[in-house]
Amino acid sequence: MGDLIVRIESLSRMWIASVLARGEQPEAEAWRRLRDWAAAKGLWGDFVTHPVYGFNNPSPASGSEEYGYELWIRIDGPEAGDGAVKFKEFEGGLFAVTACKLRGDPDVAKTWRLLWDWAQAGPYLWRRTQELEKVLNPEAAEDELILELYLPVESARNAPSAPKTS
Question: What's the rounded Cα separation, in Å, for the pair 14 and 1?
C-alpha cells in the first residue's frame, strides 16, 4: 500500500466524556465544547492520559450539507451527565492505525480508503464498531493537525466462519 504505515493497537475499555455538534462544519463547535468542559475539569493538555478521539455522527448524507461530529476525551470514571456532555463506556478492542495530516495529501478521506484497503488485503477483517480519529496535537493550528485513524479490526482467524450452504 505504498507509503502507508500501519500498526495494530489494542485500546483498553475506557470511560469517555462525549460532546456532539451538528451543522455544515460542526467540528469547530465540538472542539470548543469539549475544550471548555475538559479545561474546567483540569483534563485538557495531558493528551497521553486524556486522549481526544472524534468521528462523524451522523456521517454526511447525500443531498445534505449538515452532519454531526462527536468528540471524546478519556476520563477516569463515570460522572453524572451535565446536559451538553455525555458520559459513556467504550469497549475498546483491536484497531489498525495509521497517521495523516488533517490538511494533507493524501487527505483524511483518501487515507481512510487506503487503511480500509490495507485491512482487506491482509490478515484482518473489519469489526463493526466505531472508527475513530485520534488527534495527536489538539493545540496545533488546523493546517498542522495530525490524526491517527483507528479502523476496528479482528484477526481473520478469529472471525466467525461463513455459514455453510447446501
Answer: 32
Per-residue model confidence as pLDDT tens digits over 19-63: 999 999 999 999 999 999 999 999 999 999 999 999 999 888 888
Cα separation, 155 vs 15, whole angstroms: 25
Contacts of 106 (CB under 8 A, 6+ apart): 100, 114
CATH architecture type of domain 7-155: Alpha-Beta Barrel (3.20)
CA distances from 108 to 38, 70, 91, 136, 157 (A): 26, 16, 25, 14, 29
Locate the DSSP E strands across 61-135. Answer: 67-75, 86-90, 93-101, 124-126, 132-135
H or E segment at 34?
helix 27-40
Distance, in Å, from the CA atom of 94 to the CA atom of 9, rounded to the nearest integer, reads 6
pTM value? 0.86
C-alpha cell at 109: 478521506
Residues 6+ apart with CB under 8 A from 9: 94, 95, 97, 150
**Closest alpha carbon to 47 in 35, 36, 55:** 35
